[in-house]
Amino acid sequence: MGVLVTLIVIIIAIIIIAFIISLVIRGIRDILPTRFRSGLPVGATCVLGRNCANKACGWSDGTRSDLICCPSGSTTSVVTRNYCTELDIGQPCFVDEMCTSSYCQGGSKLTLGTCQPTIADGNPCTVDDACKSKNCGLTSGDDGASKICCPNVYRRVAGGAKYCLGTATNGQICFVRSATTINPTGMCQSNFFCPPGKLGAVSGVCTPQQSSPGGVCENNDDPCNSGTSVCGWSSDNFTTVPINPAMNICCPQGAAPRFISYGQLYCKGTAKEGDFCFKRLIGDNNMCISGLVCSTCDDNRRCIGDTGKCQPLSEVGSICLADEECREGFCGSRHAGDDADTICCPGGKFETWGGTRHCTQIPSGLPCRTNTMCASGRCKGARTDTAGVCT
After folding, report:
1. Could you tell me which residues come within 8 angstroms of residue 52 by beta carbon, excluding any fewer than 6 positions away?
2. Distance between CA atoms of 103 and 132, rounded to whole angstroms?
3. Digit-coded pLDDT (tens) for 253-299
4. If we measure between CA atoms, which residue out of 110, 24, 26, 14 comes closest to residue 62?
5. Number of H helices, E strands in the chain
6. Which has the closest alpha carbon to 227: 285, 292, 183, 171?
7. 156-184 residue pLDDT tens
8. Can you tell me whether residue 87 is helix, strand or coil?
9. For strand 192-193 and strand 162-164, is the pairing parallel, antiparallel, or unpaired?
10. Neighbours of 307 (CB within 10 A)
11. Which helix or strand (DSSP H or E) is residue 192 part of?
């Protein structure tokens, strides 16, 4: 019985002691300054983040007048100090991150500024930070060009001036990335492009796009039809200096590969009979209209040089340089002698000997290599290293 009484007394004593301790703790908390407590509400004075229910304790604005539990629930650090974010327009600030507008006009890490509204695209500006897009660019490359906020910019050199994309218009200065290819930066407005070399290696002026195949265009490197085609020469006799711009058109069938010797692009399938052409541009790249081929020949149909004129397809026996020149499709040596011309083969038939294509049906008295080369079917005296004669 005595042991039970002792246990009851001990339990009662523990309860009384615990109650007294709780009263002491509550009293100490009540006499502490509010800023040292935990779980403090928004706007309450604080010392550390753990004092606040939202864990965000910072200076209320750039004046550092009060440390409070930030209404935004977040802080940003500026030179080792935490400041509340999402400050309203007109409040003192140091950096953009402090403002609801994301723009602290005149502020820096060591300079007090003021939260101000950002500027929408298309409106005048002086600095990037003032723009909602963070891009304040020149509207063109012209001297005295205005600056506006814009969503995308082109910068010619690292750290250099910014140029808004899609703002320069007809006749205004623009820039390209390369002087040798059509590589626009997009500075010109829709329906304009920037051909290189107008004012310098990578400088030009915004020029209207051409709208239809066959339309006259200004420059050999100009894109047409909003960049889906190219501007090329349709023909020229090389006697007109300077080159007549009316000869440049938006190529209806696209352009042949650039002929390096003259550095120009030439339209496929546009040169008419007698027009200038290049013999190297044959097959799918033929400069001449359908039914014509590029051939430079004298009165005896002997072709010379790289340049030529568009001529009708050659008949059997005519001088040729390539199969494309021949109406029956094949160009080969007239006979097996070393001095043989190349002609359009009779019947479109040929035979290859020693890597050289020879027409068949060679007349009697001319050099041959095999019986099948001769119209008579007989090649007399042919050896491995010696031509025979058709008999």
Report:
1. 39, 40, 42, 44, 46, 69, 70
2. 8
3. 776 665 544 566 778 888 888 777 776 666 666 778 888 877 765 54
4. 110
5. 1, 28
6. 183
7. 776 688 999 999 999 899 887 654 444 45
8. strand
9. unpaired
10. 17
11. strand 192-193
